[in-house]
Each structure stands twice: as structure tokens, then as C-alpha cells.
Design a protein that fits this description.
This protein is mostly helical and about 110 residues long. The chain contains two helices and two strands. It has a two-stranded antiparallel sheet with strand order 1-2. Strand 1 and strand 2 form a beta hairpin.
Length: about 110
């Protein structure tokens, strides 16, 4: 193989790795956004409840009674955590200089 073919193969491999990483980040972000929507719905429902409402939390196979303040705090903390994770899975181009991994430089 010529030097250019070797360089092209290396760049192609790099591109494939980046595409795989992007795919896994997209899947992770979609899961996080789904969890975020669910938790926002729960947060909205909690806003409609009276302060003395009975709330149950599912822990394994059992429902455990929980007070509204504790449940609301848990959902708020979960939403904060999810938001941080969404930021961590943001696309590279949002935080880095644009790159052209397919641009081939002549070997030195």
C-alpha cells in the first residue's frame, strides 16, 4: 500500500470510531431526554396535589409512603442530575472547534 492509502485507511478508521461514539451519545441523550420528560410530568402532577396528599414510592415490589416535600425534593434533584448528564452527552461540535477528520494531510 502507498503512504496515501495507509493514511486514508487510518482516517477512515478514525471516522468510523467517531461515528460509533456519536451513535452511542445520541442513544444516551435520547434516554436522558425521555427520563427528563417523565420527571417533569411527575413534577407537574406534584404541583397539583395538596400539601397533605399521600404519595407512595415504588421500592422493589413494595409501595412505601412518602411525604410530599421529600418526594418533590427527590424529583427536583433527579431533574438536576439528568440536566447535567444531558449536557455531558451534548455533541462535540457544541464545545469544540470544528474538525475535518476526513481531510488527508500528506505524510511527512
Amino acid at each position: 500500500m502507498t503512504d496515501y492509502q495507509v493514511e486514508l485507511q487510518m482516517r477512515s478508521d478514525d471516522l468510523n470510531k467517531l461515528q460509533d461514539e456519536l451513535r452511542s451519545n445520541i442513544v444516551a441523550r435520547q434516554q436522558l431526554e425521555s427520563q427528563q420528560k417523565e420527571n417533569k410530568m411527575v413534577q407537574k402532577e406534584f404541583g397539583c396535589l395538596a400539601d397533605d396528599a399521600t404519595i407512595y414510592k415504588l421500592i422493589g415490589p413494595a409501595l412505601v409512603k412518602q411525604d410530599k416535600a421529600e418526594a418533590t425534593l427527590a424529583v427536583d434533584q433527579r431533574l438536576e442530575f439528568i440536566q447535567k448528564e444531558v449536557y455531558a452527552h451534548a455533541p462535540y461540535h457544541a464545545f469544540q472547534e470544528p474538525m475535518c477528520p476526513w481531510q488527508i494531510h500528506s505524510p511527512t
